[in-house]
Fold each of these.
Amino acid sequence: MSEYTAIRTCPLCEATCGLEIDVKDGVAVKVRGDKEDVFSKGYLCPKGAALHELHNDPDRLRRPLVKKNGEFVEVSWQEAFEAVEAGLLPLVEKYGRDAVGAYLGNPCVHTMAGILALRPMLKAIGSKNMFSASTVDQIPKQVSSGLMFGSVANVALPDIERTHFLLILGANPLESNGSLATAPNWPGRLRAIKDRGGRLIVVDPIKTRTAELAHEHLAVKPGGDAFLLMAMIRVLFEENLVDLGGLDDVLNGVEEIRALCQPFAPEAVSQRTGLEPDQIRKLTRELAAAESAVVYGRMGTCTVPFGALTSWLVDVVNALTGNLDKPGGAMFATPAHAPKKTKAGGKGWSLGRWKSRVKGLHEVMGELPVCTLCDEMETPGDGQIRALITVASNPVIALPNAARMEKCLENLDFMVSVDWYVTASTRHADVILPPTGPLSTGQYDFGFYGLSVHNIANYSPPVIPKPEDELDKWEILYKLAMIFSGQGAAGDPAAMDEFIISMMVGGACKREGSPLFGKQDEILQALSKYKGMERMLDFMLRTGCHGEGFGLNPKGLSLKTLLDNPHGLDLGHLEPRLPGILKTPSAKVELAPEVLVKDVERLEQALASPQDDMVLVGRRHIRTNNSWLPNIPSLLKGPPRSVLQVNPQDADRLGLKQGGMAEIESRVGKLTVPVEITENLRQGVVSLPHGWGHDLPGVRMKAARAYGGINSNFLTDDQAFDPVSNNSVLNGIPVEVRALD
Ligand SMILES: Nc1nc2c(c(=O)[nH]1)N[C@H]1C(S)=C(S)[C@@H](COP(=O)(O)OP(=O)(O)OC[C@H]3O[C@@H](n4cnc5c(=O)[nH]c(N)nc54)[C@H](O)[C@@H]3O)O[C@H]1N2
Ligand SMILES: Nc1nc2c(c(=O)[nH]1)N[C@H]1C(S)=C(S)[C@@H](COP(=O)(O)OP(=O)(O)OC[C@H]3O[C@@H](n4cnc5c(=O)[nH]c(N)nc54)[C@H](O)[C@@H]3O)O[C@H]1N2
Ligand code: SF4
Ligand SMILES: [Mo]
């Protein structure tokens, strides 16, 4: 009998908890929190505790599937890649590269391959039809960060470890464990703010568990945050509470903001926010008076009609209260894999380098928005998407207007999915390519150490060796890249790996003045111990801000340092980084970027526009993760979750009964849903979680099928989006609700 315990960072959400995993005879049998983890210190949630169940799930695909006569058949990898080549290349030849679209899902950000190996594939495809879950999620924050700080990577994070005052808008970290603010154990960290005498205020239409923990809960109307923040800014100016915290020379545009906020007096926004003018004034004064304070916004501020504007105003309030780049305020991470930037200034960041074919929606961060993905699949003509590649994504369950999406996938000429399961979406695929399981691949959170509220570096090697007949995700993505670049289905991903690392190292060694100049061979030799993603990580760590620099800084970091420290490295609290990290042409923070300033007109017009009687918002639960864990029995325990929550007054008015059924209808769809009546919702708001609805013909997930649930995205509207970021509106959907007998 072989038994061992492995240490592994959890890949399931942004919190990056350390796990201790018992393995017996090659099978993971138990997961605990790693008490020695420098960041999570033993904390874990029910999802992390079930990671081995995901790895062991018999429904998780181990072999590629190819559809033959309408049925999936297990085939060899070679046959699967040949099927991809035979299905896709003729379409490219006949219709051009834009005929192939790609939709990349959320789990891509949670794997090393998703961060490093997708780009070569996308480059090889060469289509402008690239989409990702970013445009149903955080892209508004990246737009505002790009415009203000010159780079979409410069996202200001709430320093929750030191703050005296945390104002949370539209986030529920007690269920989600945080987003764009990586930190294990949000419950503990929020309680710690209270324990040290700090204040916690939550603005959310629902009295969530996070709101319950707070000193105060302000039940804002969905979509109200931009108005609230504008009013707070006006109060700051009006009451002379503006304090730039010594950043006067770094902040451009303060006077413009003073002018912009004028129409938004607390009285003027009261109707839109559902908050009393006095509540807004008191909140602003408290925030301004706190020793340190930070506003933090998430899904409820992004997936709304003013997503980019709201995300921007969050940082404006932080700047105007002297809390930008200050301990306890909004700060920037210093990820170990990135070089330290010390000289402010750069080319800046812009959007709109190209436009979508059908609706002319602008590009953001190299992608087009998912709100127009169906348009691009449905509308005939040059550049129509005829084939789709989905990578770790579930468009039918995750994207607005699910009924339309279903039809579009059915009508594709060809579909390839890189996924672990036959899901609501991948059942439409012609080929499914499953990467090896979550415990058989290494983990370093490229995506999240740059968003972490404490500087951390941690690498975990595979817990269970990858079975010989399985492929890592990077191998699959490189194979696809090779097919598109004409090297054929027989191409060896190891050759592509060699090519990419030599390009990467070569590029760095070509820059005159760089300490690496001319040392390409030596450096490739020094990296030769590792392959694939690990080799790239080693290179990035060594050349990163704490790196050993290939001998220049012998005490610095490399992959070996992380391997020697399986519980992670604590690289300290967030540090002030302005103006060094700024990449704006002015080398200053642009508090009033033109694109966003222009959108204020739309906000002003919306002050007077009519409001909907009843709107739908989503919600998350600690035992779910979007649609990717519905087949794990231990996570399905507890009361039914896919239910419509309604406020008691609304229930009375509509004749809805606890446990009864209701019909809910939006512009795009109609669903029948069980009702749960709860005081936690504000009147006029109903809530249905996303991520359910797996009981469809062909789905191969036994537990998920038995659980079923309702896909709330049959109600969300693909025509509702924020015109600046093009992010979909998923919260505040106008609906009608009727009782059913
Ligand atoms: N109504 C509504 N809709 C929403 C949201 C909402 O709040 N309300 N939230 C939105 C948000 S924030 C997001 S991020 C999106 C997510 O949208 P998507 O990313 O499209 O969907 P997921 O549900 O995350 O599905 C992920 C798929 O990837 C597979 N998978 C998981 N891990 C891996 C892996 O390592 N490799 C591979 N190859 N496959 C893997 C899973 O089996 C699953 O099929 O949903 C959005 N949709
Ligand atoms: N357990 C679990 N954890 C997860 C996920 C999951 O599905 N389950 N998904 C992961 C992903 S992909 C993401 S992006 C993150 C998201 O992380 P969070 O943003 O923390 O998660 P949500 O639960 O969507 O929180 C959004 C809150 O906004 C509120 N809200 C809705 N509309 C408005 C509004 O107009 N204004 C305000 N102020 N509030 C509003 C909702 O009621 C909800 O409480 O969570 C991640 N973690
Ligand atoms: S909070 Fe997130 S990272 Fe931590 S155990 Fe749960 S799912 Fe994993
Ligand atoms: Mo997300």
Amino acid sequence: MPRRYGPYGGSFVPETLVPALTELEAAWRSARRDPAFRRELARLSSTLGGRPTPLYFARRLTERGGGAQIWLKREDLLHTGAHKFNNALGQGLLTRRMGKPRLIAETGAGQHGVATAMIGSALGLETEVYMGEVDIERQRPNVDRMRLLGARVIPVRSGRRTLKDAINAALRDWITNVRTTHYLLGSAVGPHPYPALVADFQSVIGREIRQQSRRAFGRLPDLAVACVGGGSNAIGTFRPLLRTDVELLGVEAGGRPGSNGAASLSAGRPGILHGSFSYVLQDADGQIADTESISAGLDYPGVGPEHAWLKDTGRARYVAVADRDALRAFHWLARDEGILPALEPSHALYAALREARRRPRTQHIVVTLSGRGDKDLAVVLRASR
Ligand SMILES: *Cc1c(COP(=O)(O)O)cnc(C)c1O
């Protein structure tokens, strides 16, 4: 498993966590070679999760663009409504393999918290989820879901009271309870081995895109597009396409006009956050900058280290899309295709449509629709009034 991506990645953590990170890496190394583990992962991916998710041709959205064909990788149809399931299932099974009875997690939009609560329940693990107070307010339905699934939701009142602060709180808990507890980190961020581990579990997205696009239109897509918060659905989409000539486009949250939003790759610079060296939004003194985005799931000042390297090497491009453009794309998909997308992939949809307009009808664009929009209805209704 790569520990570094170019200069990025690594593991900058207190000494108390080193044994747990080593144990986690060892558990995954042995599990991935164990046919029984892989069978169980595949079985639950399909029977509990609903994999494989379909690749859908968005005919009317394509007509709206008037150019390249737009295809949607339907991770929104996965159990609990987002790609987070893939990682929660994988790490949940590893937790059981390590013999730990307790799971903790952080959550922003609440999707990772719901996925963790679900897998905690399905595997019989005690589950506690840290969530910033601001996010608890704006993602209320997911808080209710987590509680109904049997998890305890712990409000985080420090800092900006969003995702970054929830991660800090979860890390503090882990340091105290590391022998009994696995920290089920929700994105391809944090210290080694998390970025590599989470990318492995999410790579099922890109592997299916590879097979399904060959079946659907006889070759690989010309362009793959995914939104980037911490970067897990995007790296899961990109990783299996890295050694092909498919163009890769990551889409960050641009926030409101004149703000940096939460676009770490577009507006940040290299630094250390949550145990990893990568692009970070920071002020002139190197303090972590405040972020803002209409989508809680993208509202994070850091990004996974593999994306930092893909950006520097030019293998992937990254752009930022503003709140109001993501909202426009949300409505386009609802009206054209009968799908209410989450606000996070609405950013990717907007960028994909812009790309489609510049390309001929013979080209194919696959957009990872990372989650469904039910959780965002209140935010969308308020913003669209
Ligand atoms: C959490 C979330 C994201 C952002 O997380 P990544 O790790 O960047 O994928 C994107 N879309 C949805 C629906 C989410 O729930």
